[in-house]
Amino acid sequence: MPEPLETDYLVIGSGIAGLNFALLAAEHGRVVVITKKRPDDTNTNWAQGGVAAVLSKEDSFAQHIQDTLTAGDGLCDRAVVELCVDEGPAMVQRLLDIGVRLARDAAGNLDLGREGAHTYHRVVHWEDVTGREIQRALLAAVAKHSNITLLDQHIAVDLLSLAKYGGDPACFGAYVLDRASGEVQTICARATVLASGGTGKVYIYTSNPDVATGDGIAMAYRIGATCGDLEFVQFHPTVLYHPHAGSFLISEALRGEGGVLKLASGETFMEKYHPMGSLASRDIVARAIDNELKKSGADSVFLDMTALDPAFVRGRFPNIYERCLGLGIDITKQPIPVVPAAHYMCGGVKTDTNGASTIRGLYAIGECAFTGLHGANRLASNSLLEGMVMSTRAASAVREAPRHRPSQVTPWTHDHATDSNDAIVVALNWDEIRRFMWSYVGIVRSDKRIERALRRIAILRDEIREYYMDFKVTSDLVELRNLALVAHLIIESARRRKESRGLHFTLDYPDKLPEARHSEIQLTDGPRG
Length: 529
Ligand SMILES: Cc1cc2nc3c(=O)[nH]c(=O)nc-3n(C[C@H](O)[C@H](O)[C@H](O)COP(=O)(O)OP(=O)(O)OC[C@H]3O[C@@H](n4cnc5c(N)ncnc54)[C@H](O)[C@@H]3O)c2cc1C
Fold this sequence. Notes:
- This protein is an alpha/beta fold.
- The chain is built from 13 helices and 18 strands.
- The protein has helices spanning 16-25, 61-72, 78-98, 130-143, 215-222, 253-256, 282-296, 310-316, 318-326, 382-397, 423-440, 447-470, 475-496, and strands at residues 5-12, 31-35, 51-52, 112-113, 123-124, 148-152, 154-161, 171-178, 184-194, 227-228, 233-240, 260-262, 301-304, 336-345, 348-350, 362-364, 369-370, 520-521.
- Strands 1, 2, 6, 7, 8, 9 and 16 form a seven-stranded mixed beta sheet that branches. The protein has a four-stranded mixed beta sheet with strand order 17-15-10-18, covered by helices on one side. The chain has a four-stranded antiparallel beta sheet with strand order 11-14-13-12, covered by helices on one side.
- A hairpin with a 5-residue loop joins strand 8 (171-178) and strand 9 (184-194).
- Helix 2 packs across helix 3 and helix 5 (215-222) packs across helix 13 (475-496).
- The longest helix has 24 residues, at 447-470.
- The chain is globular, with a radius of gyration of 22 Å.
- The two termini are 28 Å apart.
- Bound molecules: flavin-adenine dinucleotide (FAD).
- Flavin-adenine dinucleotide (FAD) binds next to helix 1, strand 2, helix 4, strand 7 and helix 5.
């Protein structure tokens, strides 16, 4: 059996949080970053709008804090909000220092976009492909750092816990499947850092790329980490509706710049739902569209940019313009057909303000973490900011992390498992989960729908468990097992919340309870791991 690979810091994920952490931690230790597909297969790479930070004279930290708290609907942790907002300008400077290009106005100042539910223009961006630019620059910086080893096509299967060796729960690394060789390697580390991103693939309609299967949350839950606020799934109101579009986001920034939502008839409708009209927060807009679509039976609503100067639209949104044009939609002349889709997970692995989870040696940063910043609903463009702030703080905190490790580490065994001869089972289970999650635990929920989802997920998870024991581990199976567990955690968290707040809307409890409470879930009081 090969010896375990030893490192100081094992980072699971190569998006903004994982790579910024790696760059900073590499100044005081050896870092191994694993990523399950290509290094740029991340949600980060798809971010369009940008990073929120207070940078203009008319704006203020107090107003960014207030906008975040308002969106979070009573559930934000104020101290975390203040921390992230205060760090905004420094994080933008760090991005520039790493080599990220950001758009500037004619006077040479950073160009600030405005997005839904932000009072002022405060979103730094690079055209409408900000995430791609951030990903590019981070990967280039990582490639130059001799203390960082980046292993792509490596998927973490499970975290290593001292509890398995009779000790207190403490994480000391992970079992990692090399997708090319099919071998499972043991990687031991002083600190294991989940930077594994979101959970969008739990739903059939999502803006997220295929990697967003909630692996980090599932792995952390299985070794006993507390998770929280998983019922708060943000549905982006405007994903392009087109049979050949895949999942292509129509950024909030289009509404920020004057785009107006309309029905097929050309009528506007958002004023019926909120005084801010098309600029209301995402949950309100997504629910309004869901309601209009259910009422009319139409396939989509439309985002109309035709009143804006075509040259401005082409210059500000070149990527969206080109992509739509390629599908036969000239957005300067025609309204864009859009539908809502799962976009962002507000909850995750519970952490403190240094990214430390409730398990020693295990950290979580970026979208997989639940820090308390977003509360019941994320303010647009606060997530890249959070990824930067928390990865920076975690990189400092891990310096002090002691090594927990048994003297002998048990290697991965799959002695009795055979190669799977029934891959269709994985595909079918995957599809079924994503469909019923959309229908029963989507934008509008009810007790009955949640109970139905619970019955189905229990059956499917039994099947998946059996399959997992019998066959050799593959990346598809790892993802399915995690996706099913995360779906179960979302359903169970939704079942426990007997109110409507932020992104969680249920027909049976349409009002908010007087006291805002986070939901926490762990192995001792939640579903089986
Ligand atoms: C279309 C779109 C547009 C967005 N626009 C914005 C925006 O304008 N502003 C904003 O603030 N936010 C935006 N967001 C949200 C934001 O992009 C994400 O929240 C953020 O990028 C998450 O970064 P991360 O580092 O936490 O994770 P990610 O960037 O998603 O990276 C996760 C990494 O973990 C890896 N991984 C996962 N599981 C495993 C495993 N088991 N083993 C090994 N590797 C694993 C993945 O392969 C990937 O490399 C957008 C999201 C989408 C999808």
